[in-house]
Amino acid sequence: MSDVCPLDFRYGSEEMRNIFSRKNYFDNILLIERNLIGALNKAGIIKDDEASNLVSTLNNIHIEDKVNDNTEHEISSLLELIELKGSKIRYLHYGLSSADIIDTIISLQIKESLTIIYKKLYYILSKLVEYSIRYKKTIMVARTHGQHALPITLGFKFANYLFEFSRATERLFDAEKRVVLCKISGATGTMAPWGDAGTSIQQYFSDVLNIPCYTITTQVAPRDGIAEVISDLAVLASIAERFAVEIRELMRTEIGEIEEIHKSAGSSSLPQKNNPFSAERISGLSRIIRGFVITALENIALWNERDLSNSSSERIEISHVFLTVDQILIDLIYILDNIKINEINIYKNLILTQGRIMSEALVTKLTLKGLNRSDSYKLVRKIVEVADKTGRDFVSLIMSNEEILRYIKKEELPDLLSPQGYLGATYTLIDSAIEYAKRVINDILNGKVHKYSKNTINS
C-alpha cells in the first residue's frame, strides 16, 4: 500500500515510528494477555497446566496471521484467532476489557516515546549550556518589538532558551506521573470478575510492566493525563518554534548574525540563498501539534463510565503528536549542530544606532546624579530625535550637550556609553540558568534515560 501520511516516510525517527507500528501494537496486546494469565495463575484462579497451554498458544500468534480482518474491533478479531489456534483457553481475556489493553498500551507507548524525547532533550540542553558558556561575553543588541533595545550577550540569549527548554522537560517529567499508568480494572473499573483477587492482579501488572496502576478508573483511564502530556508537548514545540523564529529572524540578509548552515542548495533557482529549512519546518510542524491540543481536551468529556468518541481521534493524535515532536527535536538538533555565528555582523549591528541603545543608561545616570527621572527621559529623548533627524552621531551629541554635562562629567561619558558597562547581572543570570539546566540534565541521566547518543537520531 502506498504511503499517504508524511510521518510514514518523512518525519520522525524510525525508533519513534516502531513504537506506534502495527506489529508493536499487536505484540503489546499479546504481552498483556500473557501477563493476565500469569496474574490469574498467581492468584490461584487458573492452574499451572492451563496457564502453560494458554501462554504457549499466545506465543504462536503473529501479526502475519491477519488479525486485522475485523477492522471494527481488532482485539475481538485477535481473540477469535487465538480461539481457533488453541485449546484449553477458557480463561483467555478473563475479566479484561478491551480498554484495559488499549489504555495500558497507550501508557507503554507514551513511556517509550518520552524516553526518546528525553534523550534528544538531553542533547539539546547540553548544547545550549555549551553555547551559553561559549558566548557568555559576546555582546550583541537586544531587540524588543523588532527594534534595537539594550545590549545583552549572545550567551544570555542562549541561556533564556536553555531555561525554557529545561522547564519544558520538567513539565513532561511531571505529566508522565499522571499518564504512564497501567489500567487493569475490567469493564466498568470495579474488577468484579476477579473478586477479592482484583487488586493483586492489578499489582501483578504493575510489577511486570514496571509502571504504577491508576488508583481508580471507569472502563477507561481518565483522558486528562493524555490531554496534559499533549499540551506539554505543544508547549515544548512552541518553545522550539520560538527558537526557530529567532534563527529565521537573525538569519535575514540585513541582519546576518546567526545562520543555519545546509550543505545542499538553498534555493532551486537562486544560487546565492541559504534558506532556513529546518527552522521553517519547526514552525510549520509546531502548528500541527497545537491543533491536536483541542482534540485531546475534547476527549476528556466522555459519557458516564465511557463512550467511544475518544478512540478514533486518539488513534491519530497520539502517534502523530509524538512523531511530529520527534521531528521538531531532530530539526532543532540539526540547527544546534550546524549553526554559524557571525560575530562581525553582531558587532556591526551593535553599533548601528551610533550609541542610541545606551539611552537608558544615560537616563539612569542622570537620575542618580539628581535630575528628576521624567526630565532625564525627556532630555535624552530630545537628543535621540535630533540624531534621528540629522543623522548626527548620538555619542557626539551627548558629549557636547551642556545640560548633560551639568550633571555628568565629560570623562565619565565614554564608560557610561559603552555597552560592556551596561550588562547588569547578565553573567550571574546566565550562570543561574546553567545551574537550573544542569539539575534537569541530571534528572534525565539519573531518573529517566541513559545519556543520549547522537547516532540514534535519524536526521
Question: What can you tell me about this protein's structure?
Answer:
It is a single chain. By secondary structure, the chain is mainly α. The chain folds into 3 domains: 6-85, Fumarase/aspartase (N-terminal domain) (Fumarase C, Chain B, domain 1); 98-349 and 427-451, Fumarase/aspartase (Central domain) (Fumarase C, Chain A, domain 2, Up-down Bundle); 356-416, Fumarase/aspartase (C-terminal domain) (Ribonucleotide Reductase Protein R1, domain 1, Orthogonal Bundle), CATH 1.10.40.30. It is built from 17 helices and 4 strands. The protein has helices at residues 14-19, 22-42, 48-59, 74-85, 98-134, 154-179, 198-209, 224-250, 277-298, 309-337, 343-350, 359-368, 373-390, 394-399, 402-407, 413-416, 426-448, and strands spanning 139-144, 147-153, 258-260, 339-341. The strands form 2 sheets. Strands 1-2 form a two-stranded antiparallel sheet. A two-stranded antiparallel ribbon has the order 3-4. β1 and β2 form a beta hairpin. α2 (22-42) packs across α7, α5 (98-134) runs antiparallel to α17 (426-448) and α12 (359-368) runs antiparallel to α13 (373-390). The chain is elongated, with a radius of gyration of 30 Å. The model is unreliable at 449-459 (pLDDT under 50).
Estimated share of beta-strand residues: under 5%
**Major pleated sheet:** 2 strands, antiparallel
The named CATH superfamily of the largest domain: Fumarase/aspartase (Central domain)
What is the CATH class name of the largest domain? Mainly Alpha
CATH architecture descriptor text of the largest domain = Up-down Bundle
The portion of residues assigned to helices is 55-70%
Mean pLDDT: 91
- Major sheet: arrangement of strands: 1-2
Query: How many domain regions?
Result: 3
Q: Determine the structural class based on helices, strands and strand pairing.
A: mainly alpha
Order of helices and strands: HHHHHEEHHHEHHEHHHHHHH
Q: Describe the global form.
A: elongated
Radius of gyration: 30 Å
Question: Using DSSP, what is the number of strands?
Answer: 4
Q: What is the number of helical segments per DSSP (H or I, 4+ residues)?
A: 17
Straight-line distance between termini:
25 Å
Question: Which blocks of ≥5 consecutive residues have pLDDT under 50?
Answer: 449-459
The CATH topology of the largest domain: Fumarase C, Chain A, domain 2
